[in-house]
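User: Can you fold this complex?
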Amino acid sequence: MSIEIVDASGLHTPNYRTVFVMTEERLGHYAGFREALVKAFSLTPAHADGGEPGFFRAPSGREYQVVFLSRSGQRFPSGLEIHALAPGFDPVDPQAIDEDVWRFLEWLIARVGGEWTLDALKATGKVYKVPWA
Amino acid sequence: MSAQSMPAEALPPEIRAQFPFASRFIQVNGQRMHYVDEGEGDPVLLLHGNPTWSFLYRKFIAPMAAAGFRVIAPDHIGFGLSDRPAREHDFSLENHIANLADFIRRLGLNRVTVVCQDWGGPIGLACAVLNRAAFRALVVMNTWAWPEPSAFHCGIFPWRMMHAPVVGPYLFQRRNILVERGLYLSVVHRERFFDEALPAYRHVMPDYDSRLLTRVFPRLIPLGPDDRSTATMRWLEQSLPGLDLPSLIIWGKEEIVFPAPCAQRFKDLLPNAKGPHWVTGSHFLQEDSPQEICGHILDFLRNLQDRRGP
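Assistant: Here's the predicted assembly.
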């Protein structure tokens, strides 16, 4: 099972709160990443003006919100934030989040393609002791 | 601007025991920069890179001060005990150069010998170009000063993948890979490093926000003609031959980030360069051969003194 893009109405997490995971401020640092996200989340420039955030469900079943950022002088989206959806007041498990985000990275790299290969991501993860690589 | 720094008193005793120098602070460009300042004499400015801090030079400071030099080791903004701006867009090579230039000006430093490694190279050498009259000599180690990337920086695995969009904040900030693994892989004496030094580098980067610059600096390394730092690096390379300062090149025999031809390139760029002296050392050669490097630098500085006469 891979990453599943869902819309707000398809979320399984009840009464969720959002928990910050990480920010990417420069999606355009390397070509291909922004385009892969635009395609996967069906983004248009209109999303920069009050559009809904994106959501994904990890293989674990946990769900995440992706907030797309806009910055003057850069194409939309210029960046993104990932937030975990935590049900009610339940605690979050940072390790579990890290595993889910690693799966998201694998999903993203597979969509960027070209010289950005899953093998290179996994090899990088192994060198740097990412447990899920 | 959001900026947080770690209080100097927060350093635990086992780190302070290795780094027993008074922590000093100065405002540069509106930010609080930490530095140590030991001894009296002509200043020797020790400049670190990513992801280290002045702790990297802990074994240089006392011997150099004892040899009659004023030894100054700052933490670049974003590292060590200096302020940590919270946004990627706060950082640029040009801002780092301006911060160090302001630091030198505010301390009123003259007759400076700059000792630089990694990002300390472009930052420190640019300050020497900008204010030639304040500098006396250059010592370059495992660094670069030109827009062309090394083979290491061109590769997808591992370098470009590490700081790719979305991957970068995950690996550098959530997983802290440069401190937890990258440093270890970039020294020769790994067991000693793990036991002695790693806790000090880990201590000053305890959380996601504190690690921001570890992923920003890699993105500032120019890979092509349109990259953010390319023009400044080109200006630096073109300016170095006119600097005409006594220079010393020291290089790690096991360095892979900036391999041996980079030492020769500095030899070509700096008309008065001595060396390279090859020492046991990977990228963070200060961790591997501090006494030997210190010896080379002090010999070089004593020769400059002798040439000046009484």
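The first strand of chain A starts at residue 4 and ends at 6. Chain A touches chain B at residues 21-30, 33-34, 80, 98, 101-102, 104-105, 108-109, 115-117, 120-121, 123-125, 127-130 (CB under 8 Å).
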